[in-house]
């Protein structure tokens, strides 16, 4: 897909000036905090369908990039060779909680590749004893396993000029229809690269993830839906949403107010960005939009709101605004 369709859609949206969504934290009857939120829906052809705020808002995709960073793990044949299974693929796409089962699965990727955990370059979390407990250990383990399979150097697998990182950027750029050298990358908290993208580009990536019949995307999508507890963890938004959506929604968040969603089989993706990075606001908006789109049952929404948005007695989140269609 070229950028012309995407840019044409954006120019119309910019003229329309759709207002952003506001999330207000209310303590009793009084407003205490307000979060401004941008959201956009795109289809797998790159058309911007609906938005709130700025569809071309630029920000780092953070950990919502992980399913696409896992592509070389699949396409290189590494995942098949080491017989890691869908749990490991889900973990490679996830931001897990460092529970024992998560650390064990990351260890399994390394063990099956005859690699040692000392090679992991993600930090040891505070209060933990191993980098295997870092929430990005699955991604890093997949990075190292892929590098070994391809005969690439292991000690600098995070460097932007490493063949693995070049391949990841090439795949993302190819999807977006833009030259790889034009992608702006920066260091994420775990040491790996993340990309500076427009929200419309993020939503397009997730639209493609949900629809593509390419085997790489099918494996990633199937693994995330089969084992959502390895994408995040019990009680976490991504895990609980995918469980209640019964295989219909892929969900992956990122730090600083990033949330991406897609409707499986329909080629539609959503990207959300909270300007001040609030985690509670992105979850509130995601559920608000899912209600507007009717992508999940009312009972499922109610359960998620009770589990995810419960703050403290007398405190509530109020969401004002909605996605709007633009004139074609």
Would you mind describing this structure in some detail?
This protein has 328 residues and is α+β, with helices and mostly antiparallel strands. The protein has a single domain (3-325), classed as 3-Layer(aba) Sandwich (Beta-lactamase). 41% of the residues lie in helices and 20% in strands. The protein is built from 13 helices and 11 strands. Strands 1, 2, 3, 7, 8, 9, 10 and 11 form an 8-stranded antiparallel beta sheet that branches. A 3-stranded antiparallel beta sheet has the order 4-6-5. Helix 9 crosses helix 10 and helix 11 (237-244) runs antiparallel to helix 13 (298-308). It is globular, with a radius of gyration of 19 Å. 50% of the residues are buried.
Short description:
This protein is of the alpha+beta class and 328 residues long. Helices cover 41% and strands 20% of the residues.
